[in-house]
């Protein structure tokens, strides 16, 4: 914990944090929605339809930048027509309220159109990151019992090996934009043909506040990823945090670098900014410092929401590169997903002349919870303070609040609007989050200082955060043991300067296989092809034995302690 303080630069939309906390009610925020005045209750109505019948009809909702820097743009009026068409097209092939709709796609305009279009008819949208591999897609489609998948030909090709194994999936809607996009698969329909045949008039369906609008699959330390369901009422918190934390305003151009396959990319890469009717930029290409900087310059990005790993990679690219670009329009920077180290904040101040505001939240919380606000002094390295209306605490296993400067479990009093409404078809998992009386337990350890600032310590479980992506060790271990050479595997997160953590695997080989560098690469590539381009171990160590409990569970904390040269702690439960 450092003692330096970076003073507030401006007041921002919230003006006075202390006062906002005192006066705040969620009911007051609700009054700003159409549904408070008899309008339809649906997040899609509030983010698109409402603006399309206002002066914002011709305002740009989305500036799309393709991988080769090609560009297109869509107004709120156009987005309304396109999402209406998609809602009709999906209805025509039998989709109904409550159906799960997967959108497995690069960050194309069609991703935004289909995600919002599905919400209009009351379906549950689930964007899937296009780096996912066939097993990861299969697990999600089967768990959700999804009937509809919208994808691109090259991604369909990737999952073709599991195509006969996708349960109830009955419709594959193909976005065929290229000349080499080939023939449709058996259950396939052409996206553009459907869109052309559909009407651009649609009555957005009225939903109940707790009805789901999105499901994001996310990892825990045991089992496969779970479907975290967010309800339409999450919009209440997405709206007011976008206003007070991201500090968005009417005239802003906003860029959220997260993919809609993750919660940041939906809550703040679709819903939040469009609730405020703000123009946003999306980039479908790969990370590269010069490309990123040129997007900020060319589009005059004023508010930028990104992640610590990206910032650390930019920092590594050097200050000279920064000087080549004009950041004079950039007004506000925020970060999420992993600890934002103090040196990155100091670097940001030096090169952009701006503070970087850390925000803490999770897929399960649906929206920002503990943050740094424009009007508040920043203690570099701290996550900030709970948002007005959010009650956080550092608690022990009995739910007792611990005094300042004491490490404990970071917990939240249930009742904030964007809290997940359920875990899809897994009530026991959902209940686990509320096992401590009166609290939602986040799974993170933290402490609060005497001024009420929260400081992140680490995960309380084995969940790994690599380049901001959340990965369950069990999922990686399960993929590893499917490789013919692997008998057993244990996986941990190993601290890394740029990526936060990298995945390290300890592997016992089957008889007849000899350790080699080539085999390490082969095993790592195998996991990549199966799960995703970010879930493969960057380090593999061949071992003869893995530490296990007497009941046979791999003791990852022992692997980690040994790797880091730390005390291994209580080994009472370890088998001899
Ligand atoms: O461990 C915390 C870390 O990311 C976890 C949530 O991951 P996910 O559900 O993928 O959501 C990420 C984006 C909302 C948390 O339990 N985390 C998130 N933000 C921070 C963080 N760790 C430290 N500082 C943060 N600001």
Give the count of structural domains.
2
Name every ligand kind in the structure: adenosine-5'-monophosphate-propyl ester
Structural class: alpha/beta
Order of strands in the sheet with most strands: 2-1-11-10-12-13-14-15-16
Strand composition percent: 15-25%
Please, what is the CATH homologous superfamily of the largest domain?
ANL, N-terminal domain
Rg measurement, Å? 23 Å
Mean pLDDT over all positions = 96
Report the count of strand segments: 26
Identify the quaternary structure here.
Answer: single chain
For the biggest sheet, the summary is: 9 strands, mixed
How would you portray this structure in words?
- With 576 residues, the chain is α/β, with parallel strands linked by helices.
- It is 30% helix and 22% strand.
- Strand 13 (332-336), helix 14 and strand 14 (356-360) form a beta-alpha-beta unit.
- Helix 9 crosses helix 10 (263-275).
- The two termini are 40 Å apart.
- The model has no long low-confidence stretch (mean pLDDT 96).
